[in-house]
């Protein structure tokens, strides 16, 4: 605990800001003084990036209200699901993104679980039963549970193709999943539009997300969105997927989408 206290002491001058317009002395108690610290009002804006050591003070308490189930698509033994040259594997990539995203959720104290820690393929029915079990348990603890299933798209069956871009899918009809998908799309636009990277939309039902009753999002009991993160059979998309920038962008689309949803749902200011 002592290194944490030291970390905290180092930045204490930053929290000497006035509370209720009364100037307070610098807080010297280490770390678990959450209640005494005024949370910043973020309005429509997302909180600034969190730096280790400042986490407990900067993250609003309502970030803990959401519980995120992270599903990484497929397994090492799933046929197909790779680039035509076999170098890019969807199961591996989805697991990398899920792990990177989980690390970011951890920093923000957003509870989560990784639905498939194994590398082999776990059947869809088993995934759904795991997810529903987590949903039940967390629902009892008062959490709002959502599921994100992370995939990479493919346009063909083993040859390089031209289709490119990012998209998100919900089950058919208007549900809470559409609200989450809209948050993800908003985040995707913020990150990808300035770089002129393609976002694929289906406006036929009035919103951008695509709709299909994919098993995992249709059969699971919580609001769920499946993201298709670019095309594993497009050379330029694969190059982007493999770049540090591409990985970071994909993680941030999900992370910022989650944060937007949290703000929308729980920030009652
Ligand atoms: Zn997939």
Question: What do you see in this structure?
Answer:
With 269 residues, this protein is α/β, with parallel strands linked by helices. The chain folds into 2 domains: 2-38, no CATH class; 61-266, Zn-dependent exopeptidases (Aminopeptidase, 3-Layer(aba) Sandwich). Helices cover 38% and strands 13% of the residues. The chain contains 8 helices and 6 strands. It has helices at residues 2-11, 55-58, 90-107, 124-140, 176-192, 215-219, 235-242, 244-266; strands spanning 66-72, 112-114, 144-153, 166-170, 210-211, 224-231. A 6-stranded mixed beta sheet has the order 2-1-3-6-4-5. The chain is globular and about 50 Å long. The two termini are 34 Å apart. Zinc ion binds next to loops.
C-alpha Rg (nearest Å): 20 Å
Widest sheet: strand ordering:
2-1-3-6-4-5
Q: Please mark out the parts with pLDDT under 50 across 5 or more consecutive residues, or reply none.
A: 1-44
Termini Cα gap? 34 Å
Q: Indicate the percent of residues in helices.
A: 25-40%
Give me the number of helical elements. Answer: 8
CATH class label of the largest domain:
Alpha Beta
Q: Structural class of the helix and strand makeup?
A: alpha/beta
Give the tally of β-strands: 6
Morphology call? globular
Provide the CATH architecture of the largest domain.
3-Layer(aba) Sandwich
Mean pLDDT: 84
Largest β-sheet summary: 6 strands, mixed
Query: What are the bound molecules?
Result: zinc ion
- Domain unit count: 2
């Amino acid at each position: 605990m002592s290194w944490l206290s030291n970390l905290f002491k180092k930045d204490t001058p930053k929290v000497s800001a006035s509370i209720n317009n009364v100037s307070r002395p610098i807080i010297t108690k280490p770390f678990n003084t959450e209640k005494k610290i005024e949370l910043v009002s973020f309005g429509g804006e997302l909180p600034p990036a969190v730096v280790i050591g400042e986490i407990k003070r900067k993250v609003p308490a309502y970030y803990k209200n959401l519980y995120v189930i992270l599903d990484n698509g497929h397994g090492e033994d799933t046929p197909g699901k790779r680039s035509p040259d076999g170098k890019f594997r969807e199961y591996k990539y989805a697991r990398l993104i899920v792990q990177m995203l989980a690390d970011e959720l951890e920093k923000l104290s957003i509870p989560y679980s990784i639905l498939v820690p194994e590398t082999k393929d776990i059947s869809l029915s088993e995934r759904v039963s795991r997810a529903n079990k987590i949903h039940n348990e967390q629902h009892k603890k008062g959490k709002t549970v959502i599921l994100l299933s992370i995939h990479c798209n493919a346009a063909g069956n083993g040859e390089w193709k031209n289709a490119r871009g990012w998209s998100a899918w919900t089950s058919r009809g208007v549900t809470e999943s559409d609200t989450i998908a809209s948050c993800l799309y908003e985040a995707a636009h913020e990150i990808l539009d300035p770089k002129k990277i393609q976002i694929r939309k289906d406006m036929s039902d009035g919103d951008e997300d695509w709709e299909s009753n994919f098993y995992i999002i249709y059969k699971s009991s919580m609001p769920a969105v499946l993201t298709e993160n670019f095309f594993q059979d497009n050379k330029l998309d694969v190059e982007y997927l493999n770049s540090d920038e591409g990985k970071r962008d994909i993680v941030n689309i999900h992370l910022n989408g989650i944060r937007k949803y949290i703000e929308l749902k729980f920030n009652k200011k």
